[in-house]
Amino acid sequence: MPWDEHDEIKVAHYTDLLRSALLGIFPRDLERSTGKFEAIPTATLLKKSGVRFEPGGCILDMKCTRRNFLVWLCVLTIPHVEANMSSETIFGNTRALENCGYESMSHHFTNFLYFMRSLINSEEELDLLMTEKVVSNKLGDDAEVVKFFERVVDGIAEPEHDIWCGISDNRNAQVTFRDV
Asked: What's the superkingdom here (predicted)?
């Protein structure tokens, strides 16, 4: 995201800097969302309904677009996530900062973790997202990666608001996941 060299960079903490880099909004932040959080179907259910996954962009650039090839196809663009030895610590600290750190801070990263958890409930879903290059496994065991996505949202309430509230009902793209 281009920014003017005169923009003031406000980083309150090392984890805040890390969060900004993960979200792709450095040095700015967005307003809090007012959309209601809704879990989406798993990756395999979405795939069966015609959704294709592709890696790309940062967390705030996630989108669902409808493309017309021979048939209408929905493409869900999700940033690549690497599950490795340090990911759980980084994700956990970033989530904790959002949820306990600053009252005015958005919960975009926490919402992203819940979004990914909604997609991945089993090794089958993980395998699909690894094949599509959305997730990479540096932990070795696929079952451990599924547990990783469970742990990073464990112990925290489901988000009240969701920056991707429109991704499951994108009126511009005429795509809906609610009927899957």
From this structure: Eukaryota
Beta strands in the chain (DSSP E): 51-55, 63-68, 72-78, 81-83, 135-137, 169-170, 175-176
Q: What is the pLDDT of residues 10-41, one digit of tens each?
A: 666 657 666 766 676 544 444 444 556 566 78
Strand 81-83, strand 72-78: pairing: unpaired
Query: CA dist 176 to 2, 68, 76, 166, 172, Å?
Result: 32, 16, 12, 9, 11
Q: Helices 108-119 and 142-151, interaxial angle, to 10°?
A: 140
Using an 8 Å Cβ cutoff, are 67 and 123 in contact? no
C-alpha 165: how far from its chain's center? 12
The type of residue at 155 is: G
Give start and end residues of each alpha helix (H) in 57-122.
Answer: 87-96, 108-119
Total Cβ atoms within 10 A of residue 156:
17
